[in-house]
Design a protein that fits this description.
Strands 1, 5, 6, 7, 10, 11, 12, 13 and 14 form a nine-stranded mixed β-sheet that branches. Strands 4-3-15 form a three-stranded antiparallel β-sheet, with no helix packed on it. Helix content is about 40%, strand content about 15%. By secondary structure, it is of the alpha+beta class. The structure holds zinc ion and manganese (II) ion.
Length: about 475
């Protein structure tokens, strides 16, 4: 049967590094791209007898993440040892949380603009919230680099606090998975929990995929794709893997629960090992760590819950009249939203217009120049000056675009002074007045029609005056001039 007739079920385990200065169970600095093995101690090297000490900040951040995602936190949580032969963890167990994790339940809302661009027109489950199973806290392992005959190992990463965010098998497609990862990233960034940059390995995910023929069938055999580190690769890998599983079932083959990997260069999945079950890890409570009472941490982080992207978007629609699309674009990036919010407090322009201006002009120019929002030479203060010049009728909307572009290369200038320099504000209003009179004299027919009630023709005469002034006049002032003379 065609692939599209199979029911696809996906569950995700996302490992996300928490933005902390120190590691999970020792005081070593967390770092990225430093000289290998420069941030180590007996604890994160896993030397016998070294004792772990809890990083309370990492606990707070995990509880905060749970609050952002609507999870609950048990009153007491426990640390467990996950036993395994880890070449990158010499003590051969990872400290993690099995039975009593820091967060339970909750969900991740999928934002429309986070679906792949080509899939946004046909979102199957708009407004979906992907159900979470849990979020637990654990330590990262060291980083291995495999060379031809040897393996290098860097312990700078060993012991970095990792949150593992586990979904229920609640995702139906590669596109939903893509939107899930982007939305989760956006929420963790908004909460200041992680930069969640997949390129830097701050966020990695394991994808569990199964297919079945009928809704009434039990879930199919689960194949786990390990350690994916890009959202677009995840999408490609799922499409490939779903097709492979469907073909196998069509041919009457049975699938075996196993761990696979995605080879980006070959564009295919490859089997690594048959999957171990939880009992193979012989979990047991870590005797070196006491259970943690969570009440005090919960009270400490409750006031830190920020307004989330979808909450901001709803508020902007309600309070400022933004369209759902504009609101979702503005809230899709934490830097953009802060640029917007600063601008609306400074500009006398309604928020809806500010959003239009930012989306239609500002983002275009940023894109063209490949500049990050926070590096924009035109600050919110300067942009609001420009918007205020439009509002005051000193420059027209199209003149403002030129002014904005000019300010981009000379950001130190004062927008009003620059407008004058560019000739947008005619010094001699008398000259404009003379042009208005001239246009009135030359268009007696139109003037009669306007005075007969066809006010729309004022635009035509405004255009004539603009032409006569070689674009220097301000159309708003010209129209007002015409109106006062004719009506
Ligand atoms: Zn250490
Ligand atoms: Mn894990």
């Amino acid at each position: 049967m065609p692939v599209s007739d199979y029911i696809v079920t996906i569950g995700l385990e996302v490992h996300c590094q928490i933005k902390t200065n120190t590691k999970m169970f020792c005081g070593c600095e967390t770092s990225f791209a430093d000289e290998p093995n420069t941030h180590t101690c007996p604890t994160c090297l896993g030397l016998p007898g070294a004792l772990p000490v809890l990083n309370e900040f990492a606990i707070e951040r995990t509880i905060l993440s749970g609050m952002l995602l609507g999870c609950s936190t048990p009153p007491t949580v426990v640390w467990d040892r996950k036993n395994y032969f880890y070449p990158d963890m010499p003590k051969d167990y990872q400290i993690t949380q099995m039975d009593l994790p820091l967060c339970l339940g909750g969900g991740v809302p999928l934002y429309d603009h986070n679906y792949p661009k080509d899939a946004q027109k046909k979102i199957k489950n708009p407004g979906k919230v992907v159900e979470l199973n849990r979020i637990h806290l654990e330590e990262d392992v060291a980083k291995s680099t495999h060379l031809a005959k040897t393996t290098l190992i860097d312990f700078n990463r060993a012991g970095t606090p990792l949150m593992e965010i586990v979904t229920e098998p609640d995702i139906e497609s590669a596109e939903e998975t893509f939107a899930y990862l982007k939305s989760l990233q956006q929420i963790l960034i908004a909460g200041g929990i992680s930069d969640a940059d997949m390129d830097k390995g701050q966020m990695r995910c394991d994808v569990n995929i199964s297919v079945r023929k009928n809704e009434s069938d039990p879930l199919g055999t689960k194949i786990e794709l390990k350690n994916m580190n890009s959202t677009s690769a995840v999408r490609r890998a799922i499409h490939y893997e779903v097709a492979r599983q469907c073909e196998a079932l069509d041919n009457g083959e049975s699938l075996v629960q196993a761990t696979w990997r995605w080879d980006e260069d070959l564009g295919e999945t490859q089997e690594m090992r048959t999957k171990e079950d939880a009992h193979d890890y012989r979990y047991f409570p870590d005797p070196d760590l006491l259970p943690v009472e969570t009440a005090a941490y919960i009270e400490k982080v409750r006031p830190l819950v920020p307004e989330l992207p979808h909450e901001k978007s709803a508020r902007f629609q309600k309070e400022l009249g933004l369209t759902p699309y504009d609101a979702s674009v503005i809230t899709s990036d934490i830097q953009l939203v802060s640029y917007f919010e600063t601008t609306i407090t400074l500009a006398k322009t309604p928020g809806k217009k500010v959003a239009n201006w930012i989306i239609n002009n500002f983002l275009g120019l940023l894109n063209e120049k490949s500049v990050e929002i926070q590096a924009s030479p035109v600050t919110p203060a300067k942009l609001s000056d420009i918007l205020n010049l439009i509002e005051a009728g000193t420059v027209s909307n199209s003149q403002a675009k030129d002014l904005f572009a000019a300010l981009w290369s000379t950001p130190e200038k004062d927008p009003a002074a620059l407008a004058k320099e560019m000739g947008f504000e005619p010094a001699d209003t008398g000259a404009i007045d003379a042009l208005i009179d001239e246009v009135i004299t030359n268009n007696p027919g139109k003037v009669a029609e306007i005075q007969g009630g066809n006010e729309k023709l004022l635009n035509f005469l405004t255009g004539q005056v603009m032409k006569a002034s070689k674009g220097k006049a301000n159309p708003k002032i010209v129209t007002e001039g015409l109106r006062s003379k004719l009506l």
